[in-house]
Design goal:
The complex is a heterodimer of chains A (289) and B (422).
Chain A (H helix, E strand, L loop, with lengths): L6 H27 L16 H8 L1 H32 L6 H13 L2 H12 L4 H8 L11 H29 L3 H9 L4 H29 L3 H6 L13 H9 L6 H31 L1
Helix pairs in contact in A: 1-12, 3-7, 3-9, 3-11, 4-7, 7-9, 8-9, 9-12, 11-12
Chain B lengths: L1 H18 L18 E8 L6 H14 L3 E8 L4 H11 L5 E4 L1 H9 L6 H4 L9 H6 L1 E2 L3 E3 L2 E6 L3 E4 H6 L11 H15 L10 H7 L16 H15 L12 H9 L5 E3 L2 H10 L1 H4 L2 E4 L11 E6 L7 H11 L2 H10 L3 E2 L8 H4 L5 H13 L12 H15 L5 H16 L1
Parallel strand pairs in B: 1-2, 1-3
Antiparallel strand pairs in B: 3-10, 4-5, 6-10, 6-11, 7-8, 7-9
Helix pairs in contact in B: 18-19
The chains are: A mainly alpha (289), B alpha+beta (422).
């Protein structure tokens, strides 16, 4: 039986075709369009780096970049720490713990639209939370109509929705922490807190870096939460717009500026790639230690 | 092996580039003549399942009148309709007859993707109300790119119970913008209930009497002194608590929901909304007040839909004949009696259905709206894209929050809209 060099490619072909068609083609198309003034109905001329120069002058772009970074900073720490604490809580073998594990994981599988709507009803000026505040004698809190509070509310939803997912990752990692390390530390007189910082955290560091990377990329690319909580407007005056929302607002519709939106997407890609590269570097440092 | 790999990688890179990016366009124009036969596709906007029988009836009647024709009807849900039209337009595969409102027809017409009815079927113009036909023209440039279909306009609805609580006469709703401001301030002060749920839109500017476009239709000019005056009025009302906080981010659907929940006291609407209040908000319906729309121009705002024939259609004679057939007086009248809409054909509004009241609120609103439509205007400029709407909404929000003065906000909005227009 002779081995033909193209045989492996034949096996790869179906998957490759899908990747080419639905990932590579749109991606390369986006890069081409980023240097044109194309609109939604085709056409467009090559405009060099005009779109990128326009970005530097566009206040909406800077607002979106600032918000996306704020979002990243707001969601990464809680999404690295809280799921870890949750995972340590639910890994205990007590009766009924499966119910809690399932409950914590439910927001992950819930549709983003449903989650967004539920939180909109809760945080609206006449929503449940503000009704409670008013009943207690307070004044309604503008969760959805103040640009800063809107961002914080959206971060809250992201954290709430992501807890379960990262908890599962931590649960898997916790199972791999050797029990004898804990026992040895206990023999040496270490309490639960000391064991957490001296045994659990070092053992989970690579997982924590992974969770930080995933939550940072997802946080930077946030769309659904802000879109739904702001009714598609990006907050009052568009002050809570994030980069993905700006891309959506700029590039969609029959009059969408596809060229400019593609240039924005390219920037988003570069930043996301940068975040992943930083993580990779951190991981390498970990391995070197 | 190295050569093969390199060739493969180059191929991988150039293959998508070859087909992407800078695509071409199609141009249409000239009188269309030819035999009416063969198959066409007709695309509607969310008419299934409520109006399935009606549309099938129209299709069957057309096929009977023109033996040898087949009309394939496809209905697209409202969600994603725009994306569907956009994808089809980019691919040059729009259906032969499509249901579009004027603002959707404009970008397509601008790219030469729609048949100009003024050239292709001149004689059709006489069938329709002049204001409806004009709504499908490109201002300053002429040419009509859609058969006007169904129209709507409406009264303003207000909550009599809330008016009464504020010490306002429930039988004297505001009739001018000045009265609107006075009553909204009183309502907010006495009941803490906001009058409105939506900050001014481009239609409100037009109703206030602000000039939106230059005479040649090539630039927006609503930053004129009257526009500034209107926005300053809205700012005063906002400061007095006349708008719900969500008004800064709210779209029309959200605003309607607030009115239905009796969290606001006044809402512009249409005859269609009255039926919705009756079924979905009976306690509001029991207190509903109906009044003429507030306008400084003497004309009410009109909203309409139409059907257009893409220039990419391979069977234009049949597509044009069908577009005209769907929107003819007989079919529009039947449709208007089924749905709460109004026909755009001349003379149809003389039908007793639109002129005689039977004591019900529905009939009262219908008759008033039909009368109003005679000289109503489609105030939404066809050039006013969703990006422009968003820009206006954001700038208005900044004014309401006191981040910038009205004049600066309008200057910036107009500058951005004019940039987008080019």
């Amino acid at each position: 039986m002779t081995h033909r060099p193209y045989t492996p490619w034949l096996f790869l072909l179906p998957g490759l075709a899908v990747v080419l068609m639905f990932t590579m083609f749109p991606f390369l198309n986006m890069i081409v369009l980023a240097f044109t003034d194309a609109d939604a109905l085709g056409g467009g001329q090559f405009t060099g780096v005009d779109n990128f120069l326009r970005m530097t002058q566009d206040p909406k772009f800077w607002t979106a970049v600032r918000n996306s970074f704020l979002y990243l900073c707001g969601v990464v720490p809680p999404l690295v720490l809280l799921p870890l604490l949750l995972a340590m809580l639910v890994r205990r073998k007590v009766p009924g713990i499966t119910f809690f594990r399932t409950a914590f994981f439910t927001p992950v599988i819930a549709s983003a639209v449903v989650v967004g709507l539920i939180w909109t009803w809760l945080l609206d000026s006449r929503g449940l939370v503000n009704n409670v505040v008013e009943t207690l004698g307070g004044t309604p809190i503008p969760f959805l109509t103040d640009s800063t509070l809107l961002l914080i509310s959206a971060m809250l939803v992201t954290v709430w929705k992501g807890l379960g997912y990262y908890m599962i990752i931590y649960l898997a990692a916790l199972a791999n922490v050797p029990n004898d390390l804990h026992e040895a530390a206990q023999v040496d007189g270490a309490g639960p807190v000391r064991r957490f910082f001296s045994v659990t955290v070092p053992a989970l560091r690579p997982t924590m870096v992974l969770v930080a990377a995933l939550s940072a990329v997802n946080g930077f690319r946030v769309f659904a939460e802000i879109y739904l909580l702001s009714g598609g407007s990006g907050g009052p005056g568009g002050a809570s717009t994030t980069l993905v929302m700006l891309i959506q607002q700029t590039g969609t519709g029959l009059t969408g500026e596809v060229g400019y939106a593609s240039a924005l997407s390219l920037i988003l890609f570069i930043v996301t790639l940068g975040l992943l590269l930083i993580t990779l570097r951190l991981n390498r440092k970990e391995d070197a230690l | 092996m190295e050569t093969t790999r390199r060739t493969f990688l180059i191929g991988l890179t150039t293959l998508p580039l070859a087909g992407c990016g800078l695509g071409g366009q199609q141009q249409g124009g000239g009188a269309v003549t030819g035999e009416i036969k063969g198959e066409i596709t007709f695309q509607t906007w969310a008419l299934k399942p409520k109006y399935t029988d009606y549309v099938n009836g129209v299709v069957e009647a057309f096929q009977k009148q023109h033996p040898g024709t087949t009309v394939k009807w496809v209905d697209q849900p409202a969600d994603g309709y725009l994306q569907k039209v956009m994808a089809d337009a980019s691919a040059g595969s729009l259906p032969d007859v499509i249901n579009v409102p004027p603002d959707l027809s404009f970008p397509l017409a601008k790219k030469g993707q729609l048949v100009n009815l003024d050239e292709a079927l001149k004689e059709a113009k006489g069938d329709y109300l002049e204001n409806a036909w004009t709504a499908f023209e490109i201002p300053g440039k002429g040419g009509c790119y859609g058969f006007p279909w169904y129209l709507n306009t409406g009264p303003i609805f207000y909550n009599k119970a809330l008016f009464q609580q504020a010490g306002l006469d429930p039988n004297k709703p505001p009739t001018t913008f000045q009265e609107l401001e006075q009553q909204a301030v009183q309502l907010a002060q006495r009941t803490k209930v906001p009058m409105l749920a939506q900050t001014p839109t481009i239609v409100d500017f037009a109703l206030y009497g602000v000039k939106l476009l230059s005479d040649n239709g090539e630039s927006f000019v609503f930053n004129e002194p009257k526009g500034v005056e209107f926005l300053e009025t809205a700012k005063r009302m906002y400061d007095a608590g006349a708008f719900v906080p969500e008004a800064l981010t709210q779209n029309y659907t959200g605003a309607g929901a607030k009115f239905m929940a009796q969290q606001t006291a006044l809402q512009p609407g249409s005859a269609y909304d009255l039926g919705k209040f009756k079924t979905d908000a009976p306690s509001l319906y029991a207190n509903i007040g109906i009044a003429k729309p507030i306008t400084n121009t003497g004309h009410a705002a009109m909203f309409l839909h139409g059907v257009s024939v893409p220039s990419s259609s391979k069977n234009k004679p049949t597509a044009l004949a069908f577009g005209r057939f769907v929107t003819n007086a007989e079919n529009q009248l039947k449709f208007a009696k089924l749905a709460t809409i109004f026909p755009s054909t001349k003379g149809s509004m003389n039908d007793p259905y639109f002129t005689t009241e039977d004591g019900t609120d529905e009939a009262r609103v219908r008759v008033a709206a039909a009368k109003q439509l005679g000289d109503a205007v489609n105030y939404t400029p066809v050039q006013f894209s969703s990006q422009m709407q968003e820009t206006l909404r954001q700038q208005v929000a900044d004014v309401m929050l006191g981040k910038k003065p009205a004049k600066q906000a309008l200057d910036e909005t107009v500058a951005e809209c004019n940039r987008l227009l080019k």
